[in-house]
Amino acid sequence: MTAPALQKSSPVAGQVVLDATDVTMRFGGLVAVNKVNFSVNEGEIVGLIGPNGAGKTTFFNCLTGLYKPTSGTVRYLGKTLKPQPVAVTRAGVARTFQNIRLFGNMSALENVMVGRYCRTSAGVLTSILHGPRYRREEKETVEKSKELLSFVGLTDVGDHLARNLNYGDQRRLEIARALATEPGLLLLDEPTAGMNPQETGEATDLIFAIRERGVSVVVIEHDMRFIFRLCDRVTCLVRGETLVEGTPAQVQSDERVIEAYIGSGPTHANKPATEKSLDEEAGA
Ligand SMILES: Nc1ncnc2c1ncn2[C@@H]1O[C@H](COP(=O)(O)OP(=O)(O)OP(=O)(O)O)[C@@H](O)[C@H]1O
């Protein structure tokens, strides 16, 4: 991947972009998300962590209209979001999934172009007739999609079928497709799952570059080193509730967070890194 290696900018205390209030999601008797309050400011990268089953993906699904929360409201730029995926995407919130969801038999370029279509205005009839407006928009869609492929470092594989791309490239392609919807906020569900350390480092640079484009980011991840290096703020969910919210330094040193992970029987990857282990890795 050839995404530009950017330095982390200082957190920007911009306006509130996303504002979720008292979001609750029940599945029968199970309360997967319980009265969670969560906000994202313009220019921020916010991490969402928590042991397996804490409710992170369910919360993402509530934010993006895949689930209609049992109660609570989700506002984007001050407007309440209709709990429907298309409405949420059109409003400016895009996401990727824990399990990659690409169109495997379409080329990488076509996958990105699919993302653009929620921003084009040519109606069905115009598209069928291939009128001038359709042709102009189609040309623009191809150009913008190519630019996004280049941005995520996939210039050379635009004509490859998505299913033939390696795993890391498929993850990057999902991000390019999400960016094609022109979001102001991007939600990434475990973007580095299955990546090696080099790919994870490249993903970090890519997310910083996304922020530089004016897109705020929320990221769910179990890789604590990745989260604590990347994020301006981190929220830790446990059993559907917010346990701790703060800066990476505050969260990684919070005994309650460490306890929550130990209580859940952590693997090494799941266990929050301490300040010391991060420093050691950085060669300090
Ligand atoms: N569609 C569903 N129906 C019933 N229960 C569900 C559903 N989706 C999630 N759950 C339950 O809700 C709880 C939270 O699950 P969720 O996948 O949101 O956790 P998570 O924090 O994302 O976990 P992981 O880190 O393992 O992905 C779990 O107990 C899960 O079994």
UniProtKB/TrEMBL annotation:
<dbReference type="InterPro" id="IPR003593">
    <property type="entry name" value="AAA+_ATPase"/>
</dbReference>
<dbReference type="GO" id="GO:0005524">
    <property type="term" value="F:ATP binding"/>
</dbReference>
<dbReference type="InterPro" id="IPR051120">
    <property type="entry name" value="ABC_AA/LPS_Transport"/>
</dbReference>
<keyword id="KW-0547">Nucleotide-binding</keyword>
<dbReference type="Pfam" id="PF00005">
    <property type="entry name" value="ABC_tran"/>
</dbReference>
<dbReference type="InterPro" id="IPR003439">
    <property type="entry name" value="ABC_transporter-like_ATP-bd"/>
</dbReference>
<dbReference type="InterPro" id="IPR032823">
    <property type="entry name" value="BCA_ABC_TP_C"/>
</dbReference>
<feature type="compositionally biased region" description="Basic and acidic residues">
    <location>
        <begin position="273"/>
        <end position="284"/>
    </location>
</feature>
<dbReference type="InterPro" id="IPR027417">
    <property type="entry name" value="P-loop_NTPase"/>
</dbReference>
<keyword id="KW-0813">Transport</keyword>
<feature type="domain" description="ABC transporter">
    <location>
        <begin position="18"/>
        <end position="264"/>
    </location>
</feature>
<keyword id="KW-0067">ATP-binding</keyword>
<protein>
    <submittedName>
        <fullName>ABC transporter ATP-binding protein</fullName>
    </submittedName>
</protein>
<feature type="region of interest" description="Disordered">
    <location>
        <begin position="263"/>
        <end position="284"/>
    </location>
</feature>
<dbReference type="Pfam" id="PF12399">
    <property type="entry name" value="BCA_ABC_TP_C"/>
</dbReference>
